[in-house]
Amino acid sequence: MILLPEKIRVALLVNGALHRVAQRDNLPAPDPVPVLKLFNPCGAATWLASELDEDGDTLFGLADLGFGCPELGYFSLNELASVRLPLGLRIERDEHFSSHHPLSLWTQTARRLGSLTWAEMSLKRNGGVPNRGGRA
Question: Can you give the pTM of this predicted structure?
């Protein structure tokens, strides 16, 4: 599976360039929508990416390794692509992922619920409106 198709790569690069321009010009940082979701088919690890650095490898987004504390940060596409899992499996791209919610809402929801998976269910169900009750 191709982890980073050209269309997604271009969208990530554009988001990264807009972030760099905002930093250079002392403007508020943009809050882009994640355009890439990667996951471990054997475990709970999930990554949402909204930006790609000029180096073509460094992604920025939300990482959830399954320990209950999703975090914003940078991660390497090459490192994720090199992971070898049981039964010959590898990190995969969610080919059906799409979102209209900015990364900040994903982050807020995932941290509140302790999981990107729970955040995805909540955002789909509630349309981005915070659920004050239980999990999703």
Answer: 0.91
